[in-house]
Sequence to fold (522 residues):
Amino acid sequence: MNVVTSDGTVAKALSVLDQVTAMGRPVRMRELLETSEFPKPTLYRLLQTLTNQRMLSYDKEQQTYAPGIRLVSLAHSAWSQASLAPIAAPHISALGASLREAIHLAQLDNGQVVFVDKRQASNRFATLARTGQVAPAYCTGVGKAILAHLPKEEQAQALRQQAFLKYTDATHTSAETLLRELEQIHSEGVAFDREEHEVGIISIAAPILTNTGRVVGAVSIATATNRHTLDGLNAFRPALLDCAALIGAEAQSWQSPSVPS
Amino acid sequence: MNVVTSDGTVAKALSVLDQVTAMGRPVRMRELLETSEFPKPTLYRLLQTLTNQRMLSYDKEQQTYAPGIRLVSLAHSAWSQASLAPIAAPHISALGASLREAIHLAQLDNGQVVFVDKRQASNRFATLARTGQVAPAYCTGVGKAILAHLPKEEQAQALRQQAFLKYTDATHTSAETLLRELEQIHSEGVAFDREEHEVGIISIAAPILTNTGRVVGAVSIATATNRHTLDGLNAFRPALLDCAALIGAEAQSWQSPSVPS
DNA sequence: CCTGATGCTTCCGCAATTCAAAACCGTCTC
DNA sequence: GAGACGGTTTTGAATTGCGGAAGCATCAGG
Fold:
């Protein structure tokens, strides 16, 4: 998915970084080589460079590469500056506390949804979303809420980035059916996740809009089917919209996604 | 090859990235140019590249650059793979719950301490708000605990990276006095922060050692002088050492700091 | 032991990318 | 409307990154 359009060495290095982090475990060069588009010496050199820069850490014993801690400290500034999280924190805390349900805050990045904060009501199901996790936009409540309120052009671009993998029976598998739902979401103002990403998990999501009408993220209330029905989630709608509006009002000027043409 | 040898475009790009994140707010190119070592067109091109790669986000209105959300998602993998946090989580949770004090988990990166997890007495969950922060090693409990147990060579290298800024009256201001304390810490097994970084904040810290004797991080119990005295912290020593030992036992193989010689 | 297989590392000539001076353009100020 | 200021583009030179091929380690089986 990483379109390595001639953006130079930096792009290549970052693509390797992506590849390593995507593996989800320490990896040897051999494994990377199999899926890499780069020839061996090039890959080797890039790994060297990234390791020198501490973006990767290298285990001398196992000869494996893993993401480096430097990323963790970089993310701290990113999180506190580039994300809605600091602004939204008090509001989603309040919402979570009053409803006793899980609240998620997400933003769009390269067609994917990035969860930038979350509140758990109980620790019963722990494996929902964790800060920094990414998920597809086309089959999550927050994703659809954002997509539905994107300007035409950006929306088209984002739709092109969707993979439309079928996670469950309810997952959208084409841009056409998704687009139809997005229109409905746009007019209604909220989006539902009807077990489209994971069986048993549903959510109601609202977009976060600035006063200029730009969508900068989304909030959702997520729960399990054995706790609530979709109709039941509807009861949360006013509180959710309220919360989203409060956040939007505070998120005055926000970066435009700066899509390179 | 030398250690500080800058390798290539990637290094330059990352240095710009660092500079932007370090500013702590959206910045214009002009501001970066003032402190940058790069001439204008070069800086411009690097910013372009980083923005294309979504490591930076660009606000068209204000013409400002800020860290990009991509960093947040990258950090997620880094945190869950490269850090001790996932392994240590249950143990520091238990420690925090039983003592009702703040627990910090930290690792060393480039001579600095990176907090990879924290537990407040009140809050259960880790968010990026509190993780990812960096602090100097020479004037924090966790930092000194780690430094004291580093192999000779790495220790020397780390000491060379310390700035020895005087934060409080108790701050070490030279490698000599620090080294003396490190020896003591090494034999005693715990380190104290005697208001060396911030007035009113003290802590007791223990290194996390693998079964091979390598130090991979540190845990600390931090508190305020109006809650406890340094002697009072001593009461926590057994529990702290216990916790550190448990974590160390589980942290089997860990990456060596991969210093390119 | 030797030998072949596997995978990491280094060499080195060629070519592409990066570099930065200078010029250009858009906007804001007086 | 002129001047200043900051951002963007152009361009020739040369640094750098590139990657085929060869060189090492390490390990397994003979």
Q: What stands out?
A: Strands of chain A lie at 56-59, 64-67, 102-109, 112-119, 134-136, 191-194, 201-209, 215-224.
